[in-house]
Every structure is written in structure tokens, then in C-alpha cells.
Amino acid sequence: MKIAIFGGSFNPPHKGHVYIAREARQRFSLDKVLFMVAAEPPHKSIAFGVDADMRLGLTKAALMGEDGLFACDYELKRQGKSYTADTLKQVRSIYPDAELYLIVGADMLENLPHWKEPESIFSIADIIAVSRPNCGDDNAAAQLIRQRYGATVLMAGFSGPDISSTAIRDMVTNAVGIAKLVPRATMELIYQKLLYQPEYILSYAQKLSMMIKPKRFCHSKGTMGYAVELASVWGEDGEKARIAGLLHDCAKLGDGDAVALAEKYGYEPSEEERRAPGLLHGPLGAIRVQREFGVDDKDVIEAIACHVYGRMGMSKLDKILFVSDKAEFTRDYDGVEALREASQKSLDEAVLMTMDRSMNYLMSKGAEPAESSIRIRNSIKNGIQDNSKTTFSKERQK
């Protein structure tokens, strides 16, 4: 059996890590690649204090469905610093007859002789050196290791994508989408666990968790993540999308509590809201985010106010929140994947799909959609048709 160890803090793991492991497995006919999650790296601290168990979970999520790639917890079970020499000895004891390999970045070759017990490392495992993007293979360092230690150093002959965990953490902190850089399951976990978020978002989330039920809180975090991702696709302010997504259901209460909150805020429900108090959580949420969370961004407030059934002249942020509420990661109803696909191609089409689904559901229960909802829906549809006509006209002129 041929087994490679691919070590790192994986904070978080990304598509570059997966690509490197896949390519190495194929090119060197490896049976397994073990993603060795470091418990306590000897030369650096863990950014954002993400613990080892969480990073192991992120790595398992990244490798779901990947043939021959496994997240490994050997270093997590040991005490103290995670030294490669100790890890290789442990792997050798578990797989005494296997051919072992260590996957490293080619830029590490020069420093590799200065790691703890380099003789042990080179006697236990052959080295597979993968180039960094836009960097050449460090053949001089490889040759020096071969001559000094009699080690086998194999140049991989490929480089991984130009992706870094540091950049991904910064993007999450700054409300920039990461869908293109990390596997989907890992991305969902990052948002659900509120990793790499700024302090004010963590404060909002803590307060929100005490206002709504746990399942609703999970939905809110999913909506936040999906809204950030959609904002990146459609060129909207990710910061506004993040706040609106997280807090949109802050007033999602039972009918009696919703009516009581309306009275407390001095909000006069419409006739439709009196018949169906569940509709109140949009406008009441807009008030609550101002009074209890200190949100003063007009765009965010309006998006929350209209996220239940939309409004005439919806802004891009309104549409992003409206769709994210129904397409977020925890949703699993029939048709949700089609909605997600539509949301990447046309916001208006996705909004229309969402509205039509809601209206069809109401009619299946013997209820009629409100006239205001029908007008809003028709305005979206007319806008799509007008855009289609304009596009067709421009194509004919060409």
C-alpha cells in the first residue's frame, strides 16, 4: 500500500488542498492520502483560535465523496506540539508494510532539514514536493537533501491553484463570497459555526440566539451565508447582505407574540397582517433591528421589512435577501436546487420562482394570494419580459 501524509492546520481546507491531493494520488499511484490535521503546529499559532476538532470537521466536510482522501486525527490524539517526525513514526507503526510519502510545498524543501529529526523523516518517507503557483521547483534544495540524507525527493511536476487559507479567512471576515475557493460542505460549516466573523457579527448572533428558536437560528446563519455569496455574484455590498441575512427573522414569533410586539412598537398591522400575523415578522423585524441591534442602514432595514412578500421596485439587496431566505443551505425541499441554480443566473427569475412557489402553496391550501402580492409578482415578471425585449432588440441591431 502506498500512503501519503499531507499535513497542515487546514484553517480552513480549500479546493487547492483537495486538488493537490487528487493530483498526487493519481500521478504517484497512491492508495491513500491522509490529511493530517495539526493539533498544535510548532511554528505558528492558529488564526481565530479555531480548535483542532473544528478544523478536523472542516476537513472531513471538504473530503466528502473524495475517493482515497481521508481526514486524519492522529495528531489531535497526541499531547503537545505536532512534529512531522513523530507523526510519521506513528503512521509507520500503524502501517508497517506501507510505502510512505510526505507531501510538502517545494518552497519548504530548503527548510526541511531544520525540522525536528530530519533523518527520521527522510528514512521513513519519500518526499513529494509540489510547486507553489508562480514559483519554480526548488531543485537545488531537493538535490542537497538527496546528497546529504540519501533521501528520495520526487518533484510533483504540477502546482496547486493560487488559493490560501489566509485569504479565505480575510474574505469571510470582510463579507466576500468564498464559494469558488472552498468545497460547498466546508463553506456551509464555516457559516453555520460563524467562523472568521468580525466581533460585531458574533455579538449580533449571540443576541439573536436568545430571541429565536435553535432551528430558526440555524436558518438565519444559512441565510446570512447565502446572502453574502449572492452579493458577491451580483456585485452587491456583502456587509449589508450579511447583516440583513443574519437578522431578517429576528421578529419571527408565534402569532400572539407577534401581535404583542406590534403593540409594543406601536405598529398598526394591515388587514392582511391581522388575518395572518406571521406576515408581521418582516416589518417588525425592520423595527427590531433598529431598536434592539442598533442597525441604522436604510438599505438593510428596507430589505428586512420586505423579505416576506417583496415590494414594488425591489432593490438588488431586497432581491438577494428574498431569494436567500428560501435558497439558503439548510433548505432541502423539492425544487430548492433549481432555485439555487436560477439565483446564479438571474435574480429576477429567482425572485419570480420564489413568489410563484409561495402563491401556488397558498392556493393549494384554498387561500388566495393578496392583491398586493400579485401586483409585486407581476411587476417582477414584466421587468423580466422588458429586459428580454431590450436584449433581443440589441442583438438584432448587432
Q: How many individual β-strands? A: 6
Tally of alpha and pi helices? 18
Beta-strand level of the residues, as a percent range? Answer: 5-15%
Helix and strand content put the structural class at alpha/beta
What is the average of the pLDDT values? 92
Walkthrough of the structure:
The chain is an alpha/beta fold and 398 residues long. It is built from 18 helices and six strands. The protein has a six-stranded parallel sheet, with helices on both faces. α10 packs across α15 (316-327). It starts with a strand and ends with a helix. The model is unreliable at 390-398 (pLDDT under 50).
Brief description of this entry?
The protein is α/β, with parallel strands linked by helices.
List keywords for this structure.
398 residues; 18 helices; 6 strands; six-stranded parallel beta sheet; alpha/beta; single chain
Topology:
Blueprint: E1 2-8, H1 15-27, E2 32-37, H2 52-62, E3 69-72, H3 84-94, E4 99-105, H4 118-124, E5 126-131, H5 139-149, E6 153-159, H6 165-173, H7 184-192, H8 199-209, H9 214-234, H10 238-247, H11 255-265, H12 271-275, H13 281-293, H14 298-305, H15 316-327, H16 336-345, H17 347-364, H18 371-397
Parallel strand pairs: 1-2, 1-4, 2-3, 4-5, 5-6
Helix pairs in contact: 2-7, 3-4, 9-10, 9-15, 10-14, 10-15, 13-14, 14-15, 15-17, 16-17, 17-18
